[in-house]
Design goal:
Elements: H1 2-19, E1 23-32, H2 36-43, E2 50-53, H3 60-69, E3 74-80, H4 95-108, E4 114-119, H5 127-139, E5 143-146, H6 155-161, E6 166-168, E7 171-172, H7 179-196, E8 198-203, H8 207-220, E9 225-227, H9 230-237, E10 246-247, E11 250-251
Helix pairs in contact: 7-8
Length: 252
Amino acid sequence: MRLRSWLLAVVLAASSFASADPARLTIVIDDLGQNLARDRQVLALPAPVVLAIIPETQHAAELAAEAHRAGRTVLLHLPMDPAGGPYAWHPEMASAERLQRLDRALERVPEADGVNNHEGSRMTADRPAMAELMQVLQERHLLFLDSRTSAATVAAAEAQKIGLASASRDVFLDNEATPAAVAAQLAEGVRLARRQGSAVLIGHPHPATLAVLAQQLPGLKAQGVEIIDLPQMIALRANRAMASHGRDGRYR
């Protein structure tokens, strides 16, 4: 009798686990294109990690092509004020100049599936500029990821207004780039995904970040966590804001 009860408990537990939706993570690595050997470690990670490439870097086009051939999602990591450089967007800049910079940046990352902001705490708070950017991305059939470098960002809200395929970052992996801190942030991302069904994590190609991901990604599936690509995450969320980003699915 005890054996039958134990078997029944196992069957019920397995059934419950199988029927539950897994927690889903999307992982993006920013600031790529500067060091090809290092950046190829991102391509070697055992999951569909998204590559965000800075346009003015030496290896931007080559890395984008390699990532595209590998079936990875590629983002143009567009510099935004306070970031500088020849492709950066600034609030005081004329609209025509910003759009020319976007065109030139996309030429540097020709395989881009979309855009996310590099820095941008000032720029992403500029509603007219963000509305214009989202309209251009919509016309070009490109997606957008709001890196949320500032609580004042309106980028995702403007994307949502026109139905642009978009999502927002939930967790930064490596504000402190030590193995212990990165592991703790990855665990926080998993906890959040279990609570709200999904989480978008952004990291950088620091040695600690790449080492923790290489070590821990293979075991996440066994824990009921699924790593999905950014377009899948956007489809899963259906352009709705998470609770920390807005209310009733609308971005603040």
